[in-house]
């Protein structure tokens, strides 16, 4: 048994759970952190107690890339008749949100709560910064973050969905968004959307450096043009000392390059500690999972949009996303499916920079209990979450949210 000293406040003891390695243990929680893990931990008088009944113990899940502000979660079905191009989706979404009065605050809160009930305790969301809407969508998501502060650790990316250079004033809005509370600067397809990758990247890195913020860029650009843009981005990471502070989301180009060219870029990505995010889509090239691991590149997972004007797909269940990652990459062995789970847990926490994460003493107490034999079983069966603990508080039981006043279990 290992332990760490904590004053006994907000204490909780969870007994008889199985770690992923099969060991039966108890978990003691105090002050929002794991205080001890081991068999037969003492039950102090007055400490809330939960009987795990042999359930599988998992760390809280991490959503590495979503768009809470766009979702129609819980609304009437959106009938999607949008055109096939990326610009069609961008223009359609801007028009619909303006005409419908879509409320980013209410909708982001609804979806964030659904993520939490399904076991996600850390989340990175991209929020549209637009010259028509200004900071309105950001203000709604900031309110959601404040409402769930203490149970859902949320990073907000200020994202120029229409690009940076084509709509004058976008750079000023991004600057204001970072000052207003956004954590990360977003960017989008410097060559195909902004039509000037050098200027686009220069402005992006200038804003990020001015605010000392990391960057998370959507890079949908295919093949050679994507590789060219990625090379320019890596040049700037090296020149400006931003190693470990940049994520490239999607990076479709890495799934369509000849192996020699691809591996050269993977080597640079690893050396500069630039992480990759994939949603593991079935219909476009994706960064190669095992070559990324072999080269030391961090590759993690996320949903992208969940039920919005872009897509009817997506779910706040990160076990489902792990399953889709497994299917996209042909993962069938139990040890390979554990890699898919890492993409929505430990690796995603590392890629996003979430700290104090994991199932170890001293980590923030973010725990999920499920009725499953192994991680692989949990991924493919996606059972109901029996218990979700976030920052030491019980936030969901049997798939349903728990009132804030009753987070501490049953005293015995």
TrEMBL record:
Q: Which residues form the Amidohydrolase domain?
A: 51-396
Q: What is its EC number?
A: 3.5.4.42
What superkingdom heads the lineage? Bacteria
Matching entries from CDD domains are given as: Bact_CD
Enzyme class of the recorded protein, top EC level: hydrolase
Gene3D superfamilies found in the cross-reference section: Metal-dependent hydrolases, Urease, subunit C, domain 1
A molecular-function term among this protein's GO annotations: hydrolase activity, acting on carbon-nitrogen (but not peptide) bonds, in cyclic amidines
Q: Which UniProt keywords apply?
A: Hydrolase
NCBIfam families the UniProt entry points to = PRK05985.1
Q: What is this protein called?
A: N-isopropylammelide isopropyl amidohydrolase
Q: Which species is listed as the source?
A: Paraburkholderia domus
Taxonomic placement: Bacteria, Pseudomonadati, Pseudomonadota, Betaproteobacteria, Burkholderiales
**Primary gene name:** atzC
